[in-house]
User: Fold Class I SAM-dependent rRNA methyltransferase from Halopseudomonas xinjiangensis.
Amino acid sequence: MNLPSLRLKTNSDRRIKGGHLWVFSNEVDITQTPLTALESGQEVQIETVAGKVLGLATVSPNNLICARLHSRDAAHPLDKPLLVHRFKIALSLREKLFDKPFYRLVYGESDLLPGLVVDRFADHLVVQISTPGMERVREAIIEALVQVLKPVGILFKNDNAARAAEGLPSLVEAVHGEMPERVALEENGVRFEAPVWQGQKTGWFYDHRMNRARLAPYVAGKRVLDLYSYIGGWGVQAAVFGASEVMCVDSSAPALDMVEHNASLNGVAEKMAVVEGDVMDALRELKTAGEKFDVIIADPPAFIKKRKDIRNGEGAYRRLNEQAMRLLNKDGVLVSASCSMHLAEDNLRDILLAASRHLDRHLVIAERGFQGPDHPLHPAIPETGYIKSYFCRVLPV
Assistant:
């Protein structure tokens, strides 16, 4: 195998040797190995300044993260055999963790497949490719998934913003077998259908599975408000776990239609109410109407997409959680979550504290939550850990 080289500057190999998988463009010795000579997605050998091979990577010559390693062994390029091996390793973890085939099967860097996500819905798979390197081996990905899992259908849901940043086309297409508009799944004993073609991301968010399971003791017999409900992951489970009433708020009418559908699947439709509209507007209207809730779930989309958004995003989290606290009964519970990678867990804690003190409330944190184990954290890449949640008891002083 004769691959082109990407040589690093002096001392720029430390992060790679320490376990990281990313190479930044300012770490490359472009006099010896110019990035401009490489094609987007091309496979290369990463070398130290002395020429020692550190592993194999695919390149994005025009991006700050210009290369992502997928193998430390130069004898194993990114091809079908490697993909089959990686899929089997990823599958072995998920099968230990879950008794039913509903989970994130591949989680990018944490499964040593940067730029690739695969969500499993029993015999149906939804795949997202976000890097040119994975795009170049898309046919091998399909063949490897078919070999390992023998799925009925595979959907490529390649319409994410990361692809646009890489200059890749936006495309949603069935690439193997039959792929229905909705697929069935089960989470924490609750049944759902997810709109994989038209829904957000892969159609479902497995990352909060464990946090949603924590709802059970908090919601029994309680009135619950689910903000940014999407298709009812939190709200429908709250109803199944014994909530007396659940109100779901979302700006998407199709998502709320799915809330009602998923509630019906579980026989809890009579407990559910849906409100279509902007969440912050809805919170103000509920406050004006004198509505109160025992449990409020605030799990918004990422308010902080880039580092430059941190200040404004933290302000948005503060406003959301403060308005939510205003609607809680005297001994209420706020479940506050964030999927913003750039919001530190401690910062969310401090936001909740500041909001509670502004309202002269006493807040204590009963539990903290993280993403599920099918979204494992790569210890050298903190960006792989993005979900955080707090279960807060909010009391009068």
